[in-house]
Design goal:
This protein is α/β, with parallel strands linked by helices. It is about 40% helix and about 25% strand. The protein has five domains: about 5-60; about 60-170, Immunoglobulins (Immunoglobulin-like, Sandwich), CATH 2.60.40; about 195-240, no CATH class; about 240-320 and about 405-520, von Willebrand factor, type A domain (Rossmann fold); about 330-395. It is elongated and about 115 Å long.
């Protein structure tokens, strides 16, 4: 159990160090004395905090979840309420004056009570209200206590022996995860929709006179006997769309606060579109494009395929993958080691941060205690893949890579559209989520979109604003974000005029009710 400085302590220590160094350079005794006194005060505060921590350590504190479930599913934006217990085995009460969750940044968590006392030999119940802001696998790893005696400068992180996994799915996931087995009529069922053309199915459209070439099995013998002439049954021909969803998952679209980034909204809308088409009996395919093809599902229908679509939308864009992560292998190994130590001190003992092979071996053993099952993770080596699978299994976050990948993504989008041109069966409707291309830019993508339309495939190009999610808490960042948004709108207007002239159908990404927007677009 260690003492960690709070952000306030870090800022004060930095200010004291700068003041001391500045006083030495300026040969100012009062400034040096002030900086030294501040550093001394921080040392005293840490010592006082460690006294309280010694009590917590000797008490044998435990953090436990109330309930056997270790993993939960919820839609993005939904809130889940869980209860945990802080147990105190000591004969003395332990008081804390601050409580903070240790969890993935994609989760918003409210705690109650944030201050209190754990009675001697007793327990304190803590309520957590968890809201998922970004799709993927996340976890609540523990709670960090600010013990009484430290003036808000140091805290003690307590890790759960069984971290709680929170799998956040696209917002319309409930509808998509159910089998699309029809609605108000059979027209919306898996059997397809009635077409104005004749064909073979189980529904009779009309009786008509026999014509040369009609198969004998279609002759309605009883009706023919009554009419005195041969009549044949004309059936409805079932008609289904083959729909393909192509998603641009470039790093610029994932930038922003969790839940507000453009890619967060795109995944919600794609899930809603998939749910609607699957409910109509259409076959739906999916392609997610980043620096590589992150996912590619051929068009299919049914409940099992709906589940695969859902899993792909939720996990294909995970920042744990090596080509999307801002962490290199050594950074990942350090995070794994820091997470392993409180879970199993013996297993992680005497392992240095530079011993990547040993860390990976121990991570493979400890991963069996993770709340999530093992998942496929992209990495250049088997060792790095093991380390990254550990992050994914325990819901440990990774920052996104910030280097631009627009050129690679556009090249793969062009190849994907060309692949759809030659696909069998050929898609009748393709949704393309990517920023609109201005005249003179992304010429290859515009040409590929126009060629796809020439093959009698309807293309719906959905505009994705790259400035989504940039609004910050301070007025300056808000002003910058609004300026960038205005510039992007002007650029989109020029792109819209150029793309419409090519006959490409355009749509704008909804910022509020994605489900309703997607249903309008799919009609």
């Amino acid at each position: 159990m260690q003492v960690h400085p709070t952000p306030s302590a870090v800022h004060l220590a930095g200010a004291a160090a700068i003041a001391t160094a500045g006083g030495v350079l300026l040969e100012s005794g009062p400034v040096v004395a002030w900086g030294g006194a501040l550093l001394l005060a921080l040392g005293i505060a840490r010592a006082v905090t460690e006294v309280g921590v010694a009590q917590v350590r000797s008490a044998g504190f435990e953090m436990l979840w109330r309930g056997p479930t270790r993993a939960f599913r919820l839609a993005r934006g939904e809130t889940l309420e869980l209860e945990a217990e802080v147990r105190n085995r000591d004969v003395r009460a332990a008081r804390y004056v601050g409580l903070r969750p240790v969890a993935a940044p994609a989760l918003d968590i409210e705690l109650s009570p944030v201050r209190g006392e754990v009675p001697a030999g007793g327990r304190l119940r803590v309520t957590l209200r968890i809201t998922g802001r970004r799709v993927g696998r996340h976890a609540v790893h523990g709670l960090s206590l600010e013990v009484q005696g430290g003036p808000g400068l140091f805290e003690v992180p307590l890790t759960f022996a069984n971290p709680c996994g929170i799998e956040v799915l696209p917002r319309p996931y409930a509808r998509l995860s159910r089998s699309a087995r029809g609605g108000r009529s059979r027209r919306d069922a898996d059997q397809g929709r009635a077409s104005p053309f004749s064909g073979d199915s189980g529904d009779i459209r009309e009786l008509r006179q026999h014509q040369p070439g009609d198969p004998f099995r279609r002759i309605a013998w009883k009706a023919s006997a009554r009419r005195g002439e041969l009549l044949v049954r004309e059936y409805e021909r079932e008609e289904r769309d083959v729909v393909f969803l192509l998603i641009d998952a470039a790093s610029e679209l994932a930038a922003g606060r969790p839940g507000d980034a453009a890619l967060d909204q795109v995944l919600d809308q794609a899930a809603a579109v998939a749910a609607r088409h699957l409910g109509r009996g259409d076959r739906v395919g999916l392609g997610v494009i980043g620096r590589r093809v992150l996912a590619w599902l051929e068009p299919a229908r049914g409940a099992a395929h709906a589940g695969r679509l859902l899993e792909t939308l939720a996990h294909a864009v995970s920042p744990v993958h090596a080509d999307r992560s801002g962490l290199d292998e050594s950074d990942v190994a350090l995070r794994v080691l820091e997470h392993m130590r409180p879970l199993d001190p013996e297993l992680s003992a005497h392992v240095g941060a530079h011993e990547l092979e040993r860390i990976a071996e121990r991570a493979e053993i400890l991963q069996k205690r993770a709340p999530f099952p093992d998942a496929d993770v992209f990495a250049p080596t088997q060792r790095e893949a093991m380390l990254r699978r550990y992050l994914e299994a325990f819901g440990i976050g990774s920052p996104l890579r910030h280097t631009s990948d627009r050129a690679e993504v556009d090249e793969l989008l062009v190849q994907s559209l060309s692949r759809l041109r030659g696909a069998r069966p050929r898609p009748s409707l393709v949704y393309l989520w990517t920023p609109w291309a201005e005249p003179g830019t992304r010429a290859g993508l515009v040409e590929a979109a126009a060629r796809l339309r020439s093959r009698r495939t309807e293309l719906l190009w959905v505009r994705v604003p790259v400035t989504s999610g940039l609004v910050g808490a301070d007025p300056y960042s808000t002003l910058v974000a609004h300026t960038l948004a205005r510039r992007a709108d002007l650029s989109a207007a020029r792109a819209e005029r150029a793309l419409v002239r090519l006959g490409i159908r355009l749509e704008r990404l909804a910022s509020g009710n994605e489900t309703a927007h997607a249903e309008r677009a799919a009609r």
